[in-house]
Design a protein that fits this description.
428 residues; alpha/beta; Rossmann fold; six-stranded mixed sheet
């Protein structure tokens, strides 16, 4: 008996740009078409080119029961479209997807919820849609409400829920109802940190319980923790598939830029973490060594400089720019903000600006990622988020101090310590 629960063969999805498909005529259409002025407009409109884009193309792979598959890629790579096809929200243009078993999905806030129904009614509605009996849903009801922490509002229509309440209930329903396959897009960034940790724990429990999981995320650390295999999409096609660690490393290396290519392209931004994109935009980031040369390779213990160029699009009264240092698999090593050096929060009018930070390099040899971002101190809203602005390496030998890295010094950073002389205390 085959262990395959999901099989995709030559799957493709095409979208048309603009209103190119024929639509049903309304009474308003019939009346306006009888007027010559509107006929002329229509003729001009119909002369536009029929353009289309392939959100997915030639997608073929199989997933076995109990697999936990990560799906990664840049913005617009086709990740969410793939999950929508597997959730039966949209149909493929070509190819097919065979799915064996009941599927629950968590794709967008409140998707599958009826706004006029209460939280209680939506739990039973979702269970019924999945083909579950009323007694099955009842047996999970208390767990769902407890996990979502919305007992007080369980009999309130969900149209009155905050986005956080929506997410908590949606995740609880998807994770607790007895389905064979769970599809999760990364909407958990809406929740607070405590809830995200709670969800990660539940996801690990689900993954360890034999259910099949497809997980879309920009968080490489979470993908590496949860998933035993991974695929990477680029422009709608699979460009890498296999071991999670290998696929993630290849993906991160694809962000590497030459010393001349330090402009921030749109696909480096992670829009899910930006709550206000109308104030500040980082346009360029460059890394220079101790000699002021652009580089991606630093010597052991060599300090370096990071220059950030940004645009203020609306006057700001309290923005703060920060940098993050990560390992290649997304472990955050350290964070620093420009206010840490005693500088004031940004109070700037419209225009282009630059800021430079000198970094004392305590990193052990290896590959690292620098991220940049900004937020508003008063409102706490994220203004910019580029987690993989620059990839760089630290070499084992210092060309300046002629120091060689000690192989016994493991970890990511060198601790700044001062040891005292050894004392004989045997006579004490």
């Amino acid at each position: 008996m085959s262990n395959t629960v999901i099989k995709l063969k030559n799957l493709g999805k095409r979208y048309f740009i603009g209103s190119l498909k024929p639509r049903y005529k309304t009474l308003r259409d019939t009346i306006t078409e009888s007027l010559s002025i509107f006929n002329n407009i229509k003729k001009k409109t119909n002369n536009s080119k029929n353009e289309s884009i392939w959100a997915l193309k030639n997608i073929s792979f199989e997933i076995n029961k109990g697999d936990v598959l990560g799906i990664i890629g840049r913005n617009g790579a086709g990740k969410s479209t793939l999950l929508k096809i597997l959730s039966r929200i949209t149909e493929p243009t070509v190819g097919y997807a065979e799915i064996e078993g009941r599927v629950s999905s968590l794709l967008e806030i409140g998707i599958g919820f009826h706004p006029e129904l209460t939280g209680r009614e939506n739990i039973f509605l979702n269970g019924a849609i999945l083909g579950m009996k009323k007694n099955e849903i009842k047996s999970k009801f208390d767990e769902i409400v407890d996990f979502a922490e919305i007992e007080r509002f369980i009999d309130t229509p969900v149209k009155y829920y905050s986005s956080g309440m929506y997410v908590r209930l949606a995740f609880a329903v998807a994770a607790h109802l007895e389905t064979d396959i769970l599809l999760v897009d990364e909407i958990l960034s809406v929740g607070d940190e405590a809830f995200q940790k709670k969800c990660l724990g539940k996801m690990q429990e689900v993954a360890g319980g034999g259910r099949t999981v497809l997980f879309v995320s920009h968080n490489m650390r979470t993908v590496g923790t949860l998933c035993n295999s991974c695929i990477r999409l680029e422009k709608g096609e699979i460009v890498d598939i296999g071991n999670t660690r290998d696929v993630i490393n290849n993906y991160l290396k694809s962000f590497e830029i030459s010393s001349e290519e330090d402009f921030i392209s749109e696909n480096k931004r992670i829009n899910e973490y930006i709550q206000n994109d109308k104030v500040l935009r980082i346009t360029r980031v460059s890394l220079k060594n101790s000699k002021g040369e652009k580089t991606k390779n630093l010597f052991f213990k060599e300090p370096f400089f990071l220059t950030i160029i940004f645009q203020i699009m609306q006057s700001t009264e309290g923005a703060r720019i920060g940098i993050d240092l990560y390992t290649m698999d997304g472990v955050r090593i350290s964070t620093s903000h420009h206010t840490d050096s005693g500088l004031e929060p940004l109070r700037l009018s419209e225009g282009f600006y630059s800021i430079q930070v000198k970094v004392k390099n305590n990193l052990n040899p290896g590959d690292y990622v620098l991220g940049v971002g900004a937020h508003d101190i008063k409102t706490k809203l994220g203004l910019e988020h580029i987690p993989r602005a620059i990839l760089f390496s630290v070499n084992e030998f210092s060309n300046e101090t002629h120091e060689m890295h000690d192989a016994w010094n493991a970890g990511y950073v060198q601790m700044e310590t001062q040891w005292s002389e050894i004392k004989n205390i045997s006579d004490s």
